[in-house]
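On clarity, I found the account of how folds are encoded harder to follow than it need be. What matters is that the chain and its backbone geometry are given together, residue for residue. I therefore recommend that a typical entry be quoted early in the introduction. An entry of this sort, consisting of the sequence and the corresponding C-alpha coordinates, reads as follows:
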Amino acid sequence: MRASLRRFLTWAVLLAVLLPVALVVVVGLGALLSALGDKAGAVACWRVCLVGGVGWFVALAGTATAAGILALEGPPRRGGRHGERVDHAEPESTQR
Protein backbone atom coordinates (compact mmCIF):
# COMPACT_ATOMS: atom_id res chain seq x y z
CA MET A 1 0.00 0.00 0.00
CA ARG A 2 2.87 2.33 0.78
CA ALA A 3 4.25 2.10 -2.77
CA SER A 4 0.89 2.90 -4.36
CA LEU A 5 0.39 5.81 -1.95
CA ARG A 6 3.83 7.20 -2.84
CA ARG A 7 3.02 6.83 -6.54
CA PHE A 8 -0.27 8.69 -6.01
CA LEU A 9 1.55 11.42 -4.08
CA THR A 10 4.07 11.81 -6.90
CA TRP A 11 1.34 12.25 -9.50
CA ALA A 12 -0.69 14.57 -7.28
CA VAL A 13 2.31 16.84 -6.70
CA LEU A 14 3.09 16.82 -10.41
CA LEU A 15 -0.48 17.83 -11.26
CA ALA A 16 -0.56 20.45 -8.51
CA VAL A 17 2.52 22.08 -10.04
CA LEU A 18 1.73 21.76 -13.75
CA LEU A 19 -2.04 22.37 -13.87
CA PRO A 20 -1.79 26.08 -13.00
CA VAL A 21 0.63 26.57 -15.90
CA ALA A 22 -1.76 24.84 -18.29
CA LEU A 23 -4.67 26.86 -16.91
CA VAL A 24 -2.85 30.14 -17.54
CA VAL A 25 -2.17 29.11 -21.14
CA VAL A 26 -5.82 28.15 -21.71
CA VAL A 27 -7.07 31.38 -20.07
CA GLY A 28 -4.78 33.35 -22.37
CA LEU A 29 -6.06 31.44 -25.38
CA GLY A 30 -9.65 32.09 -24.30
CA ALA A 31 -8.95 35.81 -23.96
CA LEU A 32 -7.30 35.86 -27.39
CA LEU A 33 -10.22 34.05 -28.99
CA SER A 34 -12.67 36.40 -27.29
CA ALA A 35 -10.77 39.44 -28.57
CA LEU A 36 -10.79 37.98 -32.08
CA GLY A 37 -14.55 37.54 -31.92
CA ASP A 38 -14.67 33.75 -31.60
CA LYS A 39 -17.18 33.52 -28.76
CA ALA A 40 -17.70 29.76 -29.07
CA GLY A 41 -13.96 29.11 -28.77
CA ALA A 42 -13.69 31.47 -25.80
CA VAL A 43 -16.56 29.73 -24.01
CA ALA A 44 -14.95 26.34 -24.66
CA CYS A 45 -11.67 27.61 -23.19
CA TRP A 46 -13.41 28.93 -20.09
CA ARG A 47 -15.15 25.58 -19.59
CA VAL A 48 -11.85 23.76 -19.95
CA CYS A 49 -10.41 26.13 -17.34
CA LEU A 50 -13.28 25.38 -14.99
CA VAL A 51 -12.67 21.64 -15.28
CA GLY A 52 -8.92 22.19 -14.91
CA GLY A 53 -9.46 24.31 -11.80
CA VAL A 54 -11.54 21.58 -10.21
CA GLY A 55 -8.83 19.07 -11.13
CA TRP A 56 -6.20 21.32 -9.58
CA PHE A 57 -8.20 21.56 -6.36
CA VAL A 58 -8.55 17.77 -6.26
CA ALA A 59 -4.79 17.41 -6.85
CA LEU A 60 -4.04 19.79 -3.97
CA ALA A 61 -6.42 17.98 -1.64
CA GLY A 62 -5.00 14.61 -2.69
CA THR A 63 -1.45 15.82 -2.12
CA ALA A 64 -2.25 17.02 1.38
CA THR A 65 -4.14 13.84 2.24
CA ALA A 66 -1.51 11.45 0.90
CA ALA A 67 1.32 13.37 2.57
CA GLY A 68 -0.55 13.28 5.86
CA ILE A 69 -1.17 9.54 5.63
CA LEU A 70 2.47 8.86 4.80
CA ALA A 71 3.62 11.08 7.68
CA LEU A 72 1.35 9.30 10.16
CA GLU A 73 2.41 5.91 8.87
CA GLY A 74 6.02 6.53 9.89
CA PRO A 75 9.24 5.38 8.27
CA PRO A 76 9.23 2.16 6.23
CA ARG A 77 10.04 -0.99 8.13
CA ARG A 78 13.14 -2.83 7.08
CA GLY A 79 14.76 -6.01 8.11
CA GLY A 80 13.09 -8.92 9.84
CA ARG A 81 10.36 -11.26 8.78
CA HIS A 82 6.78 -10.06 8.51
CA GLY A 83 7.80 -6.42 8.78
CA GLU A 84 9.34 -6.73 12.24
CA ARG A 85 11.79 -4.06 13.25
CA VAL A 86 15.32 -5.33 13.67
CA ASP A 87 17.47 -3.88 16.43
CA HIS A 88 21.08 -3.87 15.28
CA ALA A 89 22.43 -2.74 18.66
CA GLU A 90 25.12 -4.86 20.26
CA PRO A 91 23.73 -7.18 22.93
CA GLU A 92 24.73 -6.27 26.46
CA SER A 93 27.54 -8.33 27.83
CA THR A 94 26.49 -10.72 30.60
CA GLN A 95 30.09 -11.32 31.73
CA ARG A 96 31.36 -9.49 34.80
The chain has a mean pLDDT of 85.
